[in-house]
């Protein structure tokens, strides 16, 4: 399968070089982009892939892919600054006013990249309108996530639909609508299911990593931590005490082995696997029901899982 990422990265760099005339601004923009380029690129390539699947042929789509990725970079910067759980990232190490400024200008550059993508103006305006509406949906989800408002499975899934899944819908729908089509409900539905499955997989990964990204240590309410908290035995009450703030992080850090055993013993990991399979299987089913995407799961999953070779990505 063709790797769309190199041309998207090239467009991102060109837009930054064209509009960021201040030396410091361009320095930090390149620093942040280069860090992002070390990770598998997903959202921009999903936009390009869907554009191709739905009949688009213009090379201008790579500028649209750059637009999507510039927004995702801005979103990642803000998310990490808000969560304060990624001290290794260059935007976390930069002075806060500079990091916030870069996030805001990346968002503006994202909009500019889309307006300059070179496709029909009416089509581009419809896509920008769709993107803005999806971003506003995601803003609500982000606020609920920051406030840690999930109380049960239903409320957690509502937050994921409004946050992570909304961005996957944005990426896929950008490609579809750039071909001149209207909003495609089928694509939106399978992208949402995939977004939920991907978030559950992230939750499974982050549950047992014993560092600043660990959801338990951050006292985050995810699908898995909510399940874990539902039925604790007397010997495991320390978990509830930690979430309630009556047990400090220093004490909890010494309980890694006990926590891993609890996750296994309680069925939390099995529950996470079952929920992932539920949403991923639904995604596959919906994908197969659309003529343009039927049989294309390998191409989509190659992007989502980051298994396309990262040729040319700086290490």
Automatic annotation (TrEMBL):
Keywords: Transferase. Gene3D superfamilies: Farnesyl Diphosphate Synthase. It comes from the Bacteria. One of its GO terms (molecular function) is prenyltransferase activity. One of its GO terms (biological process) is isoprenoid biosynthetic process. Signal peptide: none annotated. Belongs to the FPP/GGPP synthase family. This is Polyprenyl synthetase.
